[in-house]
Design a protein that fits this description.
By secondary structure, this protein is of the alpha/beta class. The protein is 44% helix and 17% strand. The strands form two sheets. Strands 2-1-3-10-4 form a five-stranded mixed sheet, sandwiched between helices. It has a five-stranded mixed sheet with strand order 7-6-8-5-9, with helices on both faces.
Length: 326
């Protein structure tokens, strides 16, 4: 009898322990996040993109109920930061940037990088867009993008344009235009936007294609001939986008967004998506993005994922046609 009671007590103890284990597991899932969340930014601290993330995460903290700690991991065109995000534990406690354009849609086809943009990342939200365009000096004789093409047609290889890298999104768009127009342009790559903007102001290139500083535009030093995004800029409704002037070319994927590693539980993705979405409606965030001159553009997780699939497949075809894919 005593042996039977001892055996029963063991079963009861094991059963209680198992119930407590399940309860703890359930409660740990329900209280996400129970500690600070790290947001890896693939750009240097103090830059416009970094400041945009800090504005958003500050407002998001009140909806998550935990601090969001910014960790800057710049370098290698953004791939260091993205690699850190892609390789982390998919528990929702480390998220970060996934740079737009060539870093996601182009580089995987032409270089070996330590992540796949579709297989290794889980897109959570887009909250802004970069300023990408074809830009000339304010005193340039070129009043429109068509003026640039007309000059190139009369002067083969003399029209120079600068971008931040060979095979960048800006470079590929210009080469597609050159092919369509049957003109020859001269591409001059620089290490970054600050360098090529200095070259433009110094008169070393005819034009720049890519990100530009709005302070130069507002100071009357530069003029934008064409925006490379998918929508018109509210502040400059008269400045055309690609489709306005007859180019059936995929607009530059110039989103600023947040992603995590593949495998984050859907309930955590949903909680993050909801918190960031609410933060985007905060007056402080809206005011800050306007001061940084970043267009506020919203896409939820599904929309952002669908967009990346579209761009990745489309540029795979483009790069193959151009003989650039590895």
């Amino acid at each position: 009898m005593k042996h039977h009671l001892e055996k029963s007590n063991i079963f009861i103890f094991v059963g209680l322990a198992f119930i407590l284990f399940l309860a703890n597991e359930g409660s740990s899932q329900e209280v996400y996040p129970s500690r600070p969340v790290t947001c890896i930014v693939a750009f240097p601290a103090g830059g416009a993109t970094d400041l945009a993330f800090r504005l958003l995460t500050k407002e998001t903290e009140k909806y998550l109920g935990q601090p969001i700690v910014i960790l800057n991991k710049p370098g290698a065109g953004g791939t260091i930061g993205v690699s850190a995000v892609a390789s982390t534990k998919p528990d929702g406690y480390t998220i970060g940037t996934s740079p737009s354009g060539g870093f996601l849609a182009i580089m995987p086809y032409i270089e070996k990088i330590p992540y796949h943009p579709l297989k290794d990342l889980r897109y959570i939200i887009q909250f802004a867009s970069l300023n990408f365009g074809v830009v000339v000096k304010a005193d340039s004789p070129f009043e429109s993008f068509q003026d640039l093409i007309a000059y190139a047609r009369q002067n083969p290889k003399k029209l120079t344009y600068a971008t931040n890298a060979p095979n960048s999104i800006s470079n590929l768009i210009m080469e597609q235009i050159a092919k369509k127009e049957r003109v020859q342009l001269t591409h001059i790559p620089f290490k970054g936007s600050m360098e090529y903007q200095r070259a433009l102001i110094g008169g070393h290139v005819f034009s720049i294609v890519g990100e530009f500083n709005y302070s130069l535009l507002e100071a009357g030093q530069i003029r934008v001939l064409l925006f490379l995004g998918e929508k018109h800029r509210i502040e400059y409704p008269q400045t055309p986008i690609l489709k306005n002037i007859g180019y059936d070319i995929l607009p530059a994927p110039i989103f600023i967004n947040i992603a995590g590693p593949k495998g984050i539980p859907e309930e955590i993705v949903k909680k993050l998506e909801e918190a960031f979405t609410k933060a985007m409606n905060e007056p402080a965030f809206i005011k800050g993005l306007k001061e940084l001159r970043f267009p506020i553009v919203y896409r939820n997780s599904r929309e952002m994922t669908d967009l990346m699939v579209t761009y990745y497949k489309a540029y795979g075809i483009i790069l193959k046609e151009m003989g650039l894919s590895k």
